[in-house]
Design goal:
The chain is mainly β and about 120 residues long. The protein contains two helices and seven strands, in the order H-E-H-E-E-E-E-E-E. Strands 2-1-6-7 form a four-stranded mixed beta sheet.
Length: about 120
């Protein structure tokens, strides 16, 4: 789905990744990012950005290049950690975008530590 949105459809995407679902694995995210967004890391993916995302996936995770403070990191994200995918940059607001329209909170974890659903917004 991400590949279709980003590359086939040339749609920018916003994704919220829940680091509590990483299961202690090293995912490649900088520690500062993990500590700043402990309940949901907002990611803006834009196919027109000069950075090559180099998107790859397997049944358990997807991997891509992300830039944090001008440093490129290869991040591996478990599919179970994705709480929201929004297509088009105007379809979802992050808390840091506007104090008047904060992003919705991540859903509470269900019994067993799994997030109950994935929201796709357009």
């Amino acid at each position: 789905m991400l590949r279709m949105l980003l590359f086939d459809g040339q749609q920018a995407c916003k994704i919220v990744v829940d680091p509590r679902q990483f299961g202690g694995e090293d995912t490649g995210f900088p520690e500062q990012v993990l500590s700043t967004y402990p309940e949901g890391i907002p990611l803006d993916l834009d196919p027109t950005w000069p950075l090559d995302l180099d998107l790859d996936s397997d049944p358990r995770t997807f991997a891509l290049n992300l830039s944090f403070s001008s440093s490129v990191c290869r991040c591996h994200i478990p599919w179970a950690a994705i709480g929201m995918i929004a297509a088009g940059m105007g379809s979802a607001a992050w808390a840091h975008d506007s104090a008047d329209d904060p992003s919705p909170p991540m859903p509470p974890s269900a019994p067993g530590g799994r997030v109950g659903h994935l929201r796709v917004l357009k």
